[in-house]
Amino acid sequence: MEEWQIYQLEKQEEFVDDLVEFLKIPSMSGQADSFKDVEAAAQWVKDRLIRAGLEHVSILPTAQHPVVFAQYIKDPSLPTVLIYGHFDTQPVDPLDLWDSPPFEPVIKNDRVYARGASDDKGNMLAPILAVESLLKTEGELPINIKFLFEGQEEIGSPDLPDFVAAYKDLLACNFAISADGGQYEEDQPLLLLGLRGICALQIDLEGAKSDLHSGHYGGMVQNPIHALSHLLASMRDDNGKITVDGFYDDVKELTKDERAEIAKVPFDSYKELLNLGLEEFFGESEYSPLERASIRPTLEVNGIWGGFQGEGTKTVLPSEAHAKITCRLVAEQNPDHVIEAIAKHVRKNTLPGVRSSIKILGKGSSAYNMPFDHPGNVAAAEVLKDIYLKTPVHIWAGGSIPICSILLEHLKVYTVNFAFGLSDENIHAPNEFFRLESFRKSQKAYVLYLKNLAKHAGKFSSLGF
Amino acid sequence: MEEWQIYQLEKQEEFVDDLVEFLKIPSMSGQADSFKDVEAAAQWVKDRLIRAGLEHVSILPTAQHPVVFAQYIKDPSLPTVLIYGHFDTQPVDPLDLWDSPPFEPVIKNDRVYARGASDDKGNMLAPILAVESLLKTEGELPINIKFLFEGQEEIGSPDLPDFVAAYKDLLACNFAISADGGQYEEDQPLLLLGLRGICALQIDLEGAKSDLHSGHYGGMVQNPIHALSHLLASMRDDNGKITVDGFYDDVKELTKDERAEIAKVPFDSYKELLNLGLEEFFGESEYSPLERASIRPTLEVNGIWGGFQGEGTKTVLPSEAHAKITCRLVAEQNPDHVIEAIAKHVRKNTLPGVRSSIKILGKGSSAYNMPFDHPGNVAAAEVLKDIYLKTPVHIWAGGSIPICSILLEHLKVYTVNFAFGLSDENIHAPNEFFRLESFRKSQKAYVLYLKNLAKHAGKFSSLGF
Predict the structure, then answer these.
(1) B234 touches chain A (CB under 8 A)
(2) One domain for residues B357 and B383
(3) Tens-digit pLDDT profile for residues B115-164
(4) pTM
(5) Residue that finishes a domain, picked among A324, A342, A365
(6) Is ipTM strictly over 0.95?
(7) Do A302 and B318 make contact, defined as CB atoms within 8 angstroms?
(8) Which residue in chain A has the smallest CA separation from B201?
């Protein structure tokens, strides 16, 4: 057993105490009452980084919540990784569904229960402790490290793009590692190769200038709800394929190898359908359900409304109807082009008797895709295989993680997701918890990852600080 | 000038005072606070009928608001008409949009402003005053009269079907006249030949057992809003024709003569579109706009909802979507059959991945159609032509008037709509008013109508009281 391993073993109780202390800070970034606690969490992280032996530890302001930065530069010719995490948490409502108060951590069955335990305090503390265990036992790190911890991830990181752009020299690195996320199952490691982008819009249809009596005008005047149904129905065929002209223009088909990777992901259809309360999946039959939800773009109506929604009947011919849509984007799809294609489709397919308009909601983002053979991935895969005794699966996830796109845009680097949360840990829900088994495993994994990256050092270019 | 005309002239100021007194009673049948005032209005009507010289004047209870009955039977071998009206009113909200308090009548420019002035106190008082002017000057009426005034029309007459069924002998008549309604324009009389029926339902689509993240599941799981749009779009073609199998089964094409009657109705498309804030009408191109809104059935979505309706974006794949539908029915369409046809269509056109169900809302009613050459219509047309110096147009209206169907079902009689409200009199809205010109005209018209009915007496069968 190596020194750093013995250190981690001996210190484990203290590390758990550290985590408990960290979890007691109610650093909810979306609640004005808790803004001071977000600052307190930043201060706690700063102190912990200093104790761990990091250098240049500093709290840097943004328009809202501060960022904590630290680094350890061993040798400018070695690879430099930027490790990312966040110390803010989701809110706690509904409070009455918690078995214990969300900011009074409880340890039970080798799990710690508290808001932020898995997302992301437990996960982000692990690399700090890993670095400490190396510095305290070997006196140095095998490669260069920078830490970037933010306090606004749970509100969508609104100030992070500007922050990263402003500090791009300070944050310069060969690639990033995100300690926010997780693994597929307790015995199945994963590596994330891609995320879908997103764009959002609202469609508004307007008919007569006020609601009309459906007896007096029904049959004579266009009904905006009918027109909206017609419009939405015209956007998708019965197989789930989007029928908006140009929608698939910049979508690339995956290679056989990539599809083979997706096929390796353990996916229990029966269990998944049972969880969802569904009898069958739906969508493009030429793709598997997992493919449809990850490497295929979507056009999804998130909400619809118009006319009377109360009890009973109101014989109204409504004057308006509305729908909200988000598209998940893949490959080279550009959010602005997709919005334009939809806008054109709306103009072309609006039935007579109503006026249509669209409202673009938010900025949108392109898909994020990382090369399969990126040395950061290769090194991570080797470590995960050693720890789990199982080859990691490579997945494309259907959602969006802002940090990956932000770092790619402003620092021109990819992000390896290297974290150990599990999907049943109630993140964003009552009774969030983190497995202490995962906490220990992640400390070890980070040490092994850093050491393995040193072995792959030749594949990275020098940043020349 | 005949005696009864002189009487009406001399008494006109008193009649207007009567109307003002009647309008001061806040008899809003839908407001629990006003239930006593509905009773007070019934008492006022009873007293006024007695003063007018009617017999058997009585207040009869229903489950909610009372009915006032009166009669004058001259000779069982003469025709008997049942004159209908209602003494309850709509509520008054929004109160701040009224120029004067709704139950403090104001007379201005030969109009009386108050809630209920046109709908229906002014209109229902006229036949009472007409009967009084005949009884006080000629000592008798030319035919037999019964009065049925209700106090719950504005809440949909829920107890009237049972009441009419229970009192069908008391109410027996050759046909009915409704003093609730109006004329087309100040210089254009109309007679109503038909009303559309109605049936109502709600469609509920259910997908996964809870809302899902559109990033994680979008593309894999059916979206109930998409499925609902598909379903609603499948019910109507782009020309506005309903594509539900069996929907038109019991619809009869109108005769050339009937369509020619509709074509005579003055209908200013340009003015109507301007009022509606529309650029064009919509619907079955082989029918005129007026035909589509009166003698053609409709399937109209009155409301739709599902998913996120707030500000901005929520990336939700909703678990439910809902729509409310009412159909306007014509000719022999049976509301139950139409609901069944739609239910079948829903079952057949529900996309995979969602469960659909329908909820029937209310009892529904068939269309009401009265023969063009009914002697009640013929006699009314002659009187209207004498008064307006213009042939009345015959219209089929797109809405539903419960009393017509109730009397047809339980008394087996048709109802001639003979009233003098005009469409600009703000009924159901702030600043309702009634033209005193119409008030005087209607008193005269009712006398002439009763006298003319006596001339047509031979066309009616004896009821043999």
Answers:
(1) yes
(2) no
(3) 999 999 999 999 999 999 999 999 999 999 999 999 999 888 889 999 99
(4) 0.86
(5) A365
(6) no
(7) yes
(8) A313
